Amino acid sequence: MTQGRNGSSDSPDLEGGAPEGGIYEWYRRGCKFLREGSPAAAASLLARAAEAEPGSRSIREALARAQFDSRRYAEAADNFRVIVEANPAEDYAHFGLGMSLWRTGDIEGAQESLALAVAMRPDVRHYVNALRSVRATLRARQR
Q1: Average model confidence (pLDDT) for the chain?
Q2: Is residue 121 part of a domain?
Q3: Which of 69, 121, 131, 139 could form a Cys-Cys staple with 114, CB 3.0–4.6 A?
Q4: Whether the predicted pLDDT of 52 surpasses 90
Q5: How far apart, in whole angstroms, are the C-alpha atoms of residue 77 and residue 136?
Q6: SS3 per residue for 39-71
Q7: ∠ CA 82-40-24 to the nearest 5 degrees?
Q8: Is the same domain home to 61 and 10?
């Protein structure tokens, strides 16, 4: 276990087995780690929760965000893709998938996912800005 910011040992210890509490507690603690800037700890705990509750969109989205923030972009893309496949109307999952694909170098795939997110929510500036950046990257590569 590692010490948290307040000096307490609240990171998940997954080496020795399951963390304390139930699935909902794992989710809450994982989200707390994510908010507090500990995405690797969050990803470890949320992966456990997702394994126990694979159909939970909330757990999977939090896991994907934690993986993205931990620079585990391919894993984040996989989890965002699961959400998109289950519900194609999830604009944030399209955005997360696009951003993850962009980081893995799949610029064309990123453009497609980001374009879908923008089509669903053209009012969200960071979706629009990300799509513009990806398209600029594609134009630059074509030159």
Answers
A1: 89
A2: yes
A3: 131
A4: yes
A5: 21
A6: HHHHHHHHHHHHHHCCCCHHHHHHHHHHHHHCC
A7: 60
A8: yes
Are the beta carbons of 62 and 30 closer than 8 angstroms? yes
Q: Considering Cα of 23, then 29, then 35, then 37, what sign does the dihedral take?
A: negative
Q: Would you state the structure tokens that stand for residue 51, as one six-digit string?
A: 């394994």
Please answer whether residues 64 and 96 qualify as being in contact, where contact means their C-beta atoms are separated by less than 8 angstroms.
yes
Give the model's confidence band at 138: pLDDT under 50 very low, under 70 low, under 90 confident, else very high. Answer: very high
Give the pTM. 0.84
Tell me how many domains the chain contains: 2
Could you tell me if 53 and 95 lie in one domain? Answer: no
Residues 67, 93: one domain? no
Would residue 80 count as lying in a domain? no
Q: Is 115 among the domain residues? A: yes
Question: What is the 3 state secondary structure string of 1-30?
Answer: CCCCCCCCCCCCCCCCCCCCCCHHHHHHHH
Rounded to 5°, the CA angle 136-102-11 comes to: 140
Q: What is the mean pLDDT of residues 21-41?
A: 95
Same domain, 60 and 5: yes
Residues of the domain holding 57:
1-71
